[in-house]
Design brief:
This protein has helices at residues 2-16, 28-41, 46-54, 57-60, 80-91, 95-114, 116-119, 124-132, 139-147, 151-163, 178-191, and strands spanning 72-73, 76-77. It has one domain: Hypothetical protein af1432 (Orthogonal Bundle). Helix content is 64%, strand content 2%.
């Protein structure tokens, strides 16, 4: 079962991922592979590597998040983090992977609210999506977000997300993640 899920997911990423990454100079797939490669090279756990690879799956996932959320704009699916997390949970990925994916947009909102220099590093597309995603977090929301589970992993993913937009970067392909995805899903099925 894990193999079929992974093969289907890899096919989706391979085909739908060829689309433009909403105003950036890389495709969805190039961005995903660059983000995952950064996590791998920086020695993160397999769960963080998978979250990095799959963090924008909500942009290409054909369904909403269970509440019908799938508003598509010029900067992609506005609620792509919740759409992606819902899809990953449905496929059987761990709560750590799904939660880090779910939190990567709020991590941007948190960082913008906490660090004015960070805000200046965002691409034009990322600034526009930030506006649609609720803008910078206020103090109370930021404090609550910082107390939540996997906070540091969400921040690390967000910072990698921002750096993974290099046209022509040479990184390992999708197939290099197949075995760890299968092992991850198989371990989650064994835990149930």
């Amino acid at each position: 079962m894990a193999t079929a899920i992974v093969d289907s997911l890899l096919e989706l990423l391979s085909t739908a991922g060829q689309a433009e990454y909403h105003g950036e100079k890389v495709s969805q797939l190039e961005h995903a592979l660059q983000t995952a490669d950064l996590a791998r090279r920086e020695g993160e756990s397999e769960e963080e590597v998978l979250a990095a690879l799959l963090h924008d799956i909500g942009h290409v996932w054909p369904e909403g998040d269970g509440d019908g959320e799938r508003e598509v704009t010029s900067v992609g699916v506005v609620h792509h983090a919740s759409v992606g997390a819902a899809a990953l949970r449905k496929m059987g990925f761990s709560e750590a992977v799904a939660s880090v994916v779910a939190g990567h947009v709020n991590a941007k909102r948190y960082l913008v609210g906490q660090d004015t220099e960070y805000a200046g590093t965002l691409s034009e597309c990322s600034v526009e999506s930030l506006r649609r995603q609720g803008g910078p977090m206020g103090a109370e929301e930021a404090a609550e977000f910082a107390r939540g589970p996997w906070f540091e992993a969400k921040i690390r993913l967000r910072k990698r997300d921002d750096r993974a937009k290099i046209p022509g970067a040479i990184v390992p392909g999708l197939d290099s993640y197949r075995d760890i995805m299968i092992a991850h899903l198989s371990s989650q099925q064994n835990c149930k």
